[in-house]
Amino acid sequence: MVDFECEWCGRSTSNIPSLYNKHKNHFCSKGCHDEFQRHSKLDLETIELECDWCHKKYIVVKREVRDTDYQCCSMSCSQKYRLKNHPITFGDYMCDICGSTFSRCKSSCRKFQKKYCSIECQSIGKITQISTNCMFCGKEIYVERNIFETNKIGCFCNSDCSKLYFSEKENSPRWLTDRSALKGDENSYFRTSMEMKNWRFDIFKRDNFTCQLCGDHTSNNLNAHHIKKFADYPELRFDINNGITLCKTCHKFVTGKETQYEVEFIRRLNLC
Hints:
By secondary structure, this protein is of the alpha+beta class. It is built from 12 helices and 10 strands.
């Protein structure tokens, strides 16, 4: 160990040789090192100033002098000087919680995004969760404020309540009172109706489940074709005399040529 005296306070102390030889100046503590750096003439230049409030002369490090139009010896003198020579400007703001109008210093409100008129409103504004009730069971639950404000459907205590609530027809966001709107147009609605299913079965039964052009009788390969167009003759949509059994290949071939085959289909039905 190497014994030495602190170059600031003069207290005797010791240190290991490796740390002692590493530095030019030696101190007993970090506080003494900082004070020595602040007041050392070799390292920092000091100047004498006069306080603009109490007119007291004081010494300060030159590089720590603030670039302002006034210089004060302490924080209290600085506050008193600013209150007298730089009066505080106030502005009117609206509270984000209760909506009331209040007056506040502009410098203090400028750095905050949200404004509150009192400590009570500020405590309410800082709450991230709010209380509400489950849409299904009515149990009191706590949800995040941003989720509650943006959720247009509702809040639930768990996934089971959510499923049970939306399982009811009227509560489901996809429920349509007018089922015809589900298919997009009137023709699509009638094509999937029960009347159309019964009409198709009657056509197959009358024609013995056989294509009237090629004779194919495969059950999964049959279609009921309207002799007169489905869209042009709504009064004949469910008329059994306006239908004939065709296989999928023949039906695809006839589609778009209904007027050409109309007489032939009527002749075949009269023969039956």
